[in-house]
Amino acid sequence: MLDTSAIRLLTPADLESALAVQSRAFITDPLWCFLLPEESKRAVLLSRFFKVFVSAGIRNNQAYGVGDPLEGIAIWSAPGQPETGLSALVQAGFLNLFASRFVFSLARAFPIFNQFDRMQKQYAPDPHYYLNTIGVAPESQGKGVASKLIKPFLAQADEQGVSAYTETITPSNVSLYEHYGFRVMEVYLVPNTDLRLWSFYRPAVSPG
């Protein structure tokens, strides 16, 4: 059973605070810096994109938070749960983003998102827990917030005898995931960029 002593499921009432945490956590993310070098425009797009993404996670009961006020959020899907895929994003208003001035930036992101999807299917074909995203407010980083959003799900995965999977485009996250037992499965260099995508797989750990 998931240990919810330090985390809680987010509700629609948490959307705005979750959106603020996630957007601020990703303001220096390599992908978004690549898509929108100008920080002010990046902040606007992040807010719009994550409103769709986090709304879908909350609707699917897959968005979790730590702290009051909120310090960090994560979206996890368990084996057998639908992931926050395209259909869920469409319901949350994803297509409306293509009527915005950021349509060309989003179009540039799609080949990268497709690589993430390809790697997950390739390296985690078995039932698994999937960490879709994690974001910690800048002032709360280094205080164990990420641990509270990761460890309970890995413990549950081990209890159920299933694996876990995630990915990142942020070099500083590599050692974090390795610390929790994830193995690097692939490092994909995005053509004509300096961007790298890391794929991580963590097999179930047997007790003892």
Notes on the protein architecture:
The protein is α+β, with helices and mostly antiparallel strands. It has one domain (8-202): Gcn5-related N-acetyltransferase (GNAT) (Aminopeptidase). It is 42% helix and 20% strand. The protein is built from seven helices and seven strands. It has a seven-stranded mixed sheet with strand order 1-2-3-4-5-7-6, with helices on both faces. β2 (63-66) and β3 form a beta hairpin.
Number of helices: 7
- For the secondary structure, the number of strands is 7
Largest sheet: 7 strands, mixed
Helix coverage percent: 40-55%
Classified by CATH, the class is Alpha Beta
Global geometry? globular
Rg value: 16 Å
Query: CATH superfamily membership, which one?
Result: Gcn5-related N-acetyltransferase (GNAT)
Q: Provide the structure class.
A: alpha+beta
Total tally of structural domains: 1
Percent strand equals 15-25%
The spatial strand order of the largest sheet comes to 1-2-3-4-5-7-6
Give the H and E element order: EHHHEEHHEHEHEE
N/C terminus separation: 19 Å
Runs with pLDDT <50, length 5+?
none
Mean pLDDT: 87
